Amino acid sequence: MANNRLNKAVEQLKSTGVRMTPQRHAILEYLLTSMGHPTADEIYKALEDKFPNMSVATVYNNLRVFKEAGLVRELTYGDSSSRFDANMSDHYHVICRECGKIVDFDYPSLVDVEKEAAKKTGFRVDNHRMEIYGVCSGCQKEVTVSSG
């Protein structure tokens, strides 16, 4: 599954004239296989052993290229670093207030919200964003352990 998505993404980049370097391929592969919404720093740290000459700037530049090509979206929540999501389907995110973990959440009926907003306001609605906040199960366990 991820391999097929990777091949499609590579073809999409090549069709827009983007040269496929080993670093670019590795960053893209990492994004497509890691469903954890990594930051640029996390991607850099995950790949630095394999590419010791690669800089954080290289990661950021490639993420910008992927974003412009429509392969990833940048998630900006609060003050923390941007996170990157290679899942381009319509979905929502549940965000842990403690550790910043982001989990995908799919709830198709919320698309009706756009239609309803357009109908009630006269706006031509083209997208919406919803964020759900809480404390993930891992952080809940830590709180229970440390307070017990």
Explained architecture:
- The protein has 148 residues and is α+β, with helices and mostly antiparallel strands.
- It folds into 2 domains: 2-85, Arc Repressor Mutant, subunit A; 92-147, Dna Ligase, domain 1, CATH 3.30.1490.
- It is built from 6 helices and 5 strands.
- The protein has a 3-stranded mixed sheet, with no helix packed on it. A two-stranded antiparallel ribbon has the order 1-2.
- Cα-based radius of gyration, to the nearest Å: 18 Å
pLDDT averaged residue by residue: 84
Strand content: 5-15%
User: What oligomeric state do the depicted chains represent?
Assistant: single chain
What's the helix count?
6
Per the CATH scheme, the topology name of the largest domain is Arc Repressor Mutant, subunit A
Number of strands: 5
Query: Order of strands side by side in the largest beta sheet?
Result: 4-3-5
Distance linking N and C termini: 43 Å
**Morphology:** flat
Helix content: 40-55%
Q: Low-confidence parts, pLDDT < 50 over ≥5 residues?
A: none
State the order of secondary-structure elements, H for helix, E for strand.
HHHHEEEEHEH
Structural class: alpha+beta
Under the CATH scheme, the architecture of the largest domain is: Orthogonal Bundle
Q: Give the class-level CATH name of the largest domain.
A: Mainly Alpha
Number of domains: 2
In CATH, the homologous superfamily of the largest domain goes by the name Winged helix-like DNA-binding domain superfamily/Winged helix DNA-binding domain
Largest sheet: 3 strands, mixed
Binding site for Zn(2+): 96, 99, 136, 139
Subcellular location: Cytoplasm
Binding site for Fe cation: 128
Cofactor: Mn(2+); Fe(2+); Zn(2+)
